Request: fold
Amino acid sequence: MEKVMIVTGGSRGIGAATALMAAKYGFAVAVNYRSNREAADAVVAAIEKDGGRAIAVAADMAVEDDVVALFKTVDEKLGRVTCLVNNAGIVDDPCPVAEMGADRISRMMAVNVVGPFIAAREAVGRMSTEHGGAGGNIINISSAASHAGGGGGAGTYVDYGASKGAIDTFTEGLCREVAHQGIRVNAVRPGVVDTEIHASGGLPNKPKEAPAGIPLGRIGAPEDIAEAILYLAQAEFTTGAFIDVDGGV
Reply:
């Protein structure tokens, strides 16, 4: 049975690094993206250049119909998914809770929490031995913010931290629910990583400023996180585990 991985938010940053590394480990890869088709196509082209199989699939992970269509496309073009990486996520500008609107909070939870739930639902339905599957694994991308509350002071993202805290609890609960169905569920909690998310969250200088507070003296590279993800993708006796990849914070 071919190994098939879906990487949500796979067109850039951690997702792109994971897709590229997964192909080297023998996975056929579905590179999900929301709007940047050019970036997703570039990841697919790089995989194909090295002899791998990959497709780019558009889907807004906050829209249930999009998520369902993503999995159906993978069924048709690559085969039944064996590994889901719930990587897609958003952050917003620093904002105290006293000033947050419901629209911001709802969008944050829709992408960062509801999307991974729906994607996991679709994956379980295909992987579960109770549904004719051969097992598989789900890897959720959480964050160091899940146990730091999203930070503090001017750089606070309490809503983002809360969404990742929900992912931690989701990981712990789902791993127990589906273990007897041949499915492993684990999570990776990155610290500060050199990606575009900091600029999109209103703190473009964070990658330059963060190393002073990191014991290892540098921020992470997307490949640092991808290595942890690919470890979990193959760790057959590991479920319910969290790998903190944060430089020792």
Notes: Residues 102-127 form the longest helix (26 residues). The CA atoms of residues 102 and 108 lie 10 Å apart. The longest strand covers residues 183-190. The chain has eight helices and seven strands.
